[in-house]
Every structure is written in C-alpha cells, then in structure tokens.
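Q: I'm writing up a methods section and want to include an example of the input and output format. Could you take the sequence below and give the corresponding predicted structure tokens, formatted cleanly so I can copy it straight into the document?
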Amino acid sequence: MLGAALTAMWLEVCGASVTYTASVRVDSRVRSNEDPAEDAPTLAADTDFTPILGLERREGNTSLQLDYAPRISLREVTSRARTEIQHIGRFAALWRPERGLSFRLSEELVLGSVNLLTLDALPSLDPDPIDPDGPIRPPQGGGPLQPLPEADTVHFLSSATSLTGETGWLGRRWQLSGTTGFTVSGGLDGPAREAVPLQYGPRLDVSLSHALSPLSAITTSAAATYARFSTGANNTVVTLTESWTGRMTRRTGLEAGVGASIVHTVTAPGGVEPDPAPRTEVLPNLTLAVGHRIPSRTADFDGRLGVRVSPFTDRLTARVYPRADLTATGTWALGPRVRVGTTAGTAFAVGGATGDRLVSGGVTASWILNTWMSVDADTRGTWSRSPELPAARFQWAAVLGLSLRQTGIL
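A: Here is the clean output for your methods example:
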C-alpha cells in the first residue's frame, strides 16, 4: 500500500521541486514488566530507533505529502532481547479548487509488531502525528482513555482512510464540513485478535458552524459509525450534538455541548454478556471544557480541563456503554526552546453500566538544542481496574529521546 502511494507520488512530482524532511529519533525506555514468568525481572528496558522520511510538493492549489517511519525496537535488552519492527506511514492530498472550497484525502497506516503496554507515543510525522488507532495514553486535547490489554506485543494493523470536504459557500460566518472514511484496527493473527480483536467499518461526520461573533460560534454535528469485530460483535452509533465555543475573556475559553446517541449493539456469539440479544438504546452525549492561558516571557502557560459523558466502545470487548472522561492538560513554554507538559485523566462507567476504571497521568519535557537537534523526556503511568480481571493493574514507562532533523528542497 505504501509502495503504491510512493510510486504514484513520484510520478506526480517528477520534474518538480519538492520539500523533504529527514530525521532520526532514538528512544531509551524503562518500564514495568508484564511478563508473567516467575523469574522475569520487575523492570524492562527498551530501545527504539526510528528514521523518518517525508516528502511534500506544493503547486498552486494542490499539495501532496508522503511520510514513512519504520520503528525498530529492541525489547527487554537486559534480559530476553528481541527485535520488533513497526511500519508507520501517511499519505495526504489537499486540493483547493477555488476560494472557500477544499478537499483532503488521507491514508494513515500502522503495521507490524506493536507493544501495547509501553504507553509511549508513536513517532510524530510533521505536521500531524500519525495515530489512527486511538492510543492507550490520554490523547491531546482530551478524549477517551483505552483499557489496557492483557497481552504485551501483538501483530497489529491500523488503517484509517478519510475524505474531508469544507466550504464557506453558505455565507461569511458559515462553515460546512463533512468527512467520510473507513477504519481497520486490531490484531492480524489469531493470538493477536484474542488480545485486541480486529474491528473495521465506515464512518460519516457532517457539521455546520455559524460564527455568532468574532469570539463565539455554534456548531451542529451529526455522525454515524459502524464497527464490526472479529469476535462477531458489531455496533452502530448515530450521534447528533449541538455545541458552543467562545472566549469568556482574552485568556479564558469555554466549550459546551449537548446531544444524544442512538446505539444498536449485537454481542458476540458465546460471549459473557448476561443478555446476548441485540439491543437499541439512547445514550447521552455531553461535553464541557475550559481553557486558560497565562502569557509570560519566561513561563507561558496554556491549560485545559474537560469533562465528557458519551457512548464508549471498548475495543477489547466490543461493548458500548455510557462513560465519563475527565482530562486535564497543561503546557509551559519556558522560553523559545523549552516546553514542559503535564496530562492527567480518569474514566469510568456511568448510568449503572459496568466497565473499566482508568486513571492515567504523565509529564513530558522537550528541549530544542538547535534547528536540527532536540531532546525529549516522557514519564507516564496508567492504573486500570477491569471487571473481567481479578485485580487492578498499574503500568508505567519513562522515556528519554534524541531527535535529529534536516529539511531541504530537492
């Protein structure tokens, strides 16, 4: 798939100048060890080596971008060393046929051996991180925390294809956008699917925004998703929401949303659900978030606190239930070259439903030494309590990384 995209892009850009980005990232990690063997050490050490190559062509109202990052991981280097390879790639095409109208086609792919318990971020392929699967760690800007699987490393596939269109034809203060796509995510073989079932299905999102003033806007959104799992379970979720965003002051912003979701669920044959019959229910969809910025030349701060109640699809069991997610993030810019960030979140089932309880937190730091070198540190941990497991679990990881980067024009 990546080879075909690379060939198509090469034929398109042949004879024209393109911008390239070449970088290398090396990460050393210490983490808790999930190996159940009696003689297994309590700590594990890993090393990741990730070369990243990006090509971009811009001409007139069209731009093409291709990124590829094979991550080579040396797992448990101090005890039972093994090598794992993970391929990460993205292709994106942006077309603006006229003013106020744009289309974007993208494909994001993760393929190979993936360790699901290290809690580390996938390599960032500038300008956007490739993360189609939805990570186990708290995502940026808040969002659902994913439950921890029982397995360590699995053969994994994640593919997200999407086509997005945006237009301002409806008026100066109106913005209409729509996205359609297809997502595949989960284990590739039998043992991997026992840990993380393969799920696939289409999705459709449509939103209409109206700027009430330069400082506030309302948005009406409708979304529909269908997911089918390798276990035989499937679900359909149709959501309609109304949201409002605005700035209360120059430094404080507020976001609020209310809506409802119609959920139709078919459980897996022979599953553990007490009522295996298909069911249809209406679940709430509520959002409230506050962001605040404290400008400073020495410690500029930008923080966000969010609360969300929405239907959650457990990717490990395919169950859909109402869940509350509370997330808090903060970023300090300690000058132009140093950034420190913190993140914390918790998630739990509401409305009488049963589901995983999760608590996650972490601290990150980045130091840009010069235009081609940077150093990063990341420490994260997740506590989880699953109704299917007899005891709670805690996973943590600390990472130190070095990145080298070079850009130019071919």
